[in-house]
Amino acid sequence: MEKAQDKILSEVTSGEYKYGFYSDIEMERIPKGLSEDVVRIISSKKNEPDWLLEFRLKAYRHWLTMKMPKWPNLKIPPIDYNEIIFYAAPKQRKTLNSLDDIDPELKKTFDKLGIPLEEQKHLSGVAVDAVIDSVSVKTTFKETLAEMGIIFCSFSDAVKEYPDLVRRYMGSVVPYTDNFFASLNSAVFSDGSFCYIPKGVRCPMELSTYFRINSANTGQFERTLLIADEESYVSYLEGCTAPSRDENQLHAAIVEIIAEKSAEVKYSTVQNWYPGNKDGLGGVFNFVTKRGLCKGENSKISWTQIETGSAITWKYPSCILRGDNSTGEFYSVAVTNNHQQADTGTKMIHIGKNTKSTIVSKGISAGKGQNSYRGLVKVLRNATNARNYSQCDSLLLGDKCGAHTFPYLEVDNQTAIVEHEATTSKIGEDQIFYCNQRGISTEDAIGLIVNGYAREVINKLPMEFAVEAQKLLQISLEGSIG
Amino acid sequence: MLVINNLKATISGKNILKGISLKVKPGEIHAIMGPNGSGKSTLAAVLAGREFVEVTEGTVTYLGKDLLSMSPEERAKEGIFLGFQYPIEIPGVSMVNFMKTAVNEHRKHKGLDPLSASDFLKLMREKKEMVEIDSKLANRSVNEGFSGGEKKKNEIFQMAMLEPRLAILDETDSGLDIDALRIVANGVNKIKRPDNSFIVITHYQRLLDYIVPDVVHVLYDGRIVKTAGKELALELEEKGYDWIKKEVENSILA
Ligand SMILES: Nc1ncnc2c1ncn2[C@@H]1O[C@H](COP(=O)(O)OP(=O)(O)OP(=O)(O)O)[C@@H](O)[C@H]1O
Ligand SMILES: [Mg+2]
């Protein structure tokens, strides 16, 4: 029996095949570099309405006044924005690379993820388009969903078909002035997903988008907007991979979630962008702004993330708990192996009364990986009876890696109860040997131990996704011991 | 089954095993006794393939093969089971998941298909009953928060699940109350067959009332200094180790 996530994977990765992109796909790109003209070109290529162009331009002009944030505990090499191509769309091009051109490590990974060989070939450079092709996953269910009034489409389509909704909500949670990368995204975003769940509707299936990064030198800037109207429910999944390249690639996405009164949104991510090779060459810079607004009372937003990929991850899925009795949750597993760096965590902003938040962060560092948890719990003056529970655990494999915890706490209301727990542990040789002695190989033992450690978070994922996440955790740590 | 010949081993350069020879035949139960620090656990560690013990001399043949060249997991899959003196906790890893992985690795090694979930749970239930382990323990994470005695019983449970050809039990009896001791001993007796063997490391004769050994060895300062029938255990219980130590010293002087 095929697992749902395998299906998603193979569906997306074979998408071009289905839609005739299999051969001769080439990217249409605009010249590299960023300027007001480039912003205008992007907007016009997408036939956007004026208000959206205005939004982009304001964002661009604001971005010019900003600087890269220095506070993350990351070593980020300088990024030359004039070397990045900001718009690329699929068009014809002649058949590329043979199978042999793929990084053998990546090949192995795909083998292990159960993606057949032909699809690997596909991924080697042409699969690029799968990001745009993520539509294919969505369209599978589009009609069924539409019967319930659920809108699930690409961001570009939403701009055309539901301009009012987009206009009302876009930028309402993450304003274009929010931060350096959010401003950049607001100026040049290419596409992404849009989702609207109408009042009182429980979305009957998991919605998922599978992102794949574009071809060489191309930045990836997608935007997701998810609106859950009153008393609705949706569980949303996001998966991502990228081909291996020696140069770094920039991914700066925005995800905005709005939960109206009594709505519940579960947003799960399995992030597996190319992490760079063993020596730290290449890999995706993953600078993402994800934020949810619990707008109405009794609303709830949960973020669950399994972060195994990317050379550098900078990401703080957050919740603004504005509605009374609203709830925010953040469950995270972040892996850094080899030379990977991650500075990730969350912000829980308690504004409404009786708001609750839970943070469970599990960092796993191996190789020379550096893993930082950075979390802010902020309780505003009127947030009577706010509750937060934070748990930040770090697991170290080997002694060349690092784990760091930066909890920030700002409490302006006396009635708040905020708890924070942190632990650091090591995978012991004793544990591995104990498994070995029962016939379990060291690799499988690490997989078992790490998955045991991350279980609390993995349990939050939808079933089929959890299985994939477990495999991924194990694969991403292979070769990290012994 | 197992032939150890003049085995010498060091830990961080320190000589711990100083020439051990031992032969275990199928169906035999050997008891190893000896004062603290004499090298009993080190011997078990060498047999199981622990890396920090360095074998400097000697050979170990198991079922006709060179044991020392095999990886720990190969040894396990070839039927060597070590009941740890200090079982390890693995937080978050359920016993079910752990044992399923282990059992299926053993099956794969034998060319068998993995057990289905329901067959596996059935096997687990059977073995739980056989070794009288509390059902709840098997639903928890591996050894996490288990009491000392519970950990030891859990070792016997795992042994029952994996049906080893050669089980080495390192002080599985210490820390057990009388009932648990009986349970552990019964477990061993139920698993015992004419074609599998046990090496039981213990300090107490009382275990040997339940598990009757064919041979008793005394390990002292990295050597087997005495080998005899089960009556040796009684003698040791009565007289302690001093007389053996003296014997050894005299023989060195002589
Ligand atoms: N990891 C280690 N590092 C250094 N020395 C060790 C290590 N393990 C064991 N030793 C030493 O090796 C010697 C033998 O220890 P071992 O554990 O084999 O004894 P034992 O006979 O099992 O004792 P006990 O009856 O107390 O369990 C002791 O002197 C001990 O200190
Ligand atoms: Mg010992």
> Structurally, how many domains make up the residues of chain B?
1
Biggest β-sheet: strands ordered side by side in the sheet of chain B? 6-9-10-3-11-12
Can you identify the CATH superfamily of chain B? P-loop containing nucleotide triphosphate hydrolases
| Approximate strand percentage of chain B | 25-35%
Per the principal axes of the C-alpha atoms, what is the gross shape of chain A?
Answer: globular
What is the CATH fold-level name of chain B? Rossmann fold
Percent of residues of chain A in beta strands? 25-35%
Strands of chain B, total number: 12
Can you tell me the residue ranges of chain B where pLDDT is under 50 for at least 5 consecutive residues? none
Shape category of chain B: globular
CATH A-level architecture of chain B: 3-Layer(aba) Sandwich
Largest sheet of chain B: 6 strands, mixed
Tally of discrete structural domains of chain A: 1
Q: Largest interface: which pair?
A: A-B, 23 and 32 residues
By CATH reckoning, the class of chain B would read Alpha Beta
- Based on helices, strands and strand pairing, what is the structural class of chain A? alpha/beta
Helix content of chain B: 25-40%
User: What order do the helices and strands of chain B follow?
Assistant: EEEHEEHEEHHEHEHEHEEHH
Rounded radius of gyration of chain B (Å): 18 Å
Bound ligands:
adenosine-5'-triphosphate, magnesium ion
